[in-house]
Each structure stands twice: as structure tokens, then as C-alpha cells.
Please model this.
Amino acid sequence: MSQGIVQEITFFLHSVLMGLIITFAYDWILIFRRLFRHGKFWVSVEDFIYWFICGVSVFYMLYKENNGVLRWFAVVGAAIGMLFYKLTIKNRFVNIMSTYIHKIMWFVFRVIQVMLKPLKCLFSAARRFVRFLKKRLKKVKEFIKKRLTVFIKTLRIVLCKQ
Model:
């Protein structure tokens, strides 16, 4: 085989690999969306960033491999890579990974909950103590206010008599 044909085949295989990688990356975005639900605006922002990065990476591949010239068999190769990934993997990868990551996150949050339970008890005890002090200080404030009022009235009476 001539060197030119080998380069073209290598370029085609790199295009197929780029299609696989692009589809695999989008599956991770889908997993993220299943784990953390959000609105249409953020979905649009994610998609824009994803397609911008994909466009830059495809352009870089075309620039590196083929001096920036768009060859239709490269587009077909990327489409074949995407189609191959979707036909073999489908949504099983997204379902399995989102389920396992969800279970791992649930377990981690549960462990954190158990570890923080003593702090929660300590915090609630401190809150009850602060409420107790607040009530006591309110009573002391009222007592001092009454005593000062009585003292001022007595002082006025004494000063007025003189």
C-alpha cells in the first residue's frame, strides 16, 4: 500500500474514533443530567459548551491530520463512530452508570449523615441552652428594669421634696 492510502485510512479511523469519543462524552452529560435535574436554560448552556468543545476538537483533528481541509469521508467516519457507539452501547451505559453513581452518592450521604449525627445532637443541645439563657436574660432584664424604675421614682420623690 502506498503511504498516501495509509494516511487516508489512518485519518478515517481517527474520524471514527472521534465520533465514538464525542458520543461517549455526551453520554456523561446525560448521566449528569439524570443525577442533577435542572431546567431548560442550563441544559442549553451545557449543550452549547459541549458542541463548542466538540467543534474545536474536530477542527483540531482536521487541522492536525489533514491541514484543515474538510473531507467528507471524515464526516462519514465520525458518523459511523457515533452510530457504532449507539448501536452497541445504546442507553445501557447511561442507565447503569447513573444508577451506580446514584447509589454511591446515596451511600456517601448516608455515611456523612451518620458521622454528623453527634454534631447534630450537640447543636440541638446548644440551641436549647441558648434559648434557656435567652429566657433567663429576659427575666433578669425585666427585673432590672422594674428596679431601676422604682429607684428613679424614689429618687424623683426625694429630689422633689427638697
In short: The mean pLDDT is 88. The chain has four helices and no strands. Helices lie at 3-35, 40-66, 72-88, 92-161.
